[in-house]
Specification:
Helix content: over 70%
Largest sheet: none
Structural class: mainly alpha
Distance between the termini: 34 Å
Order of helices and strands: HHHHHHH
Radius of gyration: 17 Å
Number of helices: 7
Length: about 110
Amino acid sequence: EVYHLEEAAIGGHPDARLNLGCIEEDNGRDDRAVKHWIIAANMGHDGSLENLKLVYREGLPASPQIYREGLVSKEDFASALRAHQTAVDATKSPQRETAERFWREEAARGDG
């Protein structure tokens, strides 16, 4: 499983980065987990940004000293947040917004 996640991450799949980060965290390699989450957040992945926010504010449950050790500094978090917003903004277009509005209306009517 890890091999395929690594291949997907190399190919630019942000969900794979999130999952690899979680695996690294479970294995006690918190610094590597944070790196995976930063990369995924930079690609616009919401879940990874949420993980970084949690680590920045509270540390990881298994190792609450993470923030004090500087694995996610204020600058690291701010940089990831800016990159995340840039990636999200890059995916916006009038066509996507029209499609989203259409599907929301369809779902509200119960047709979708």
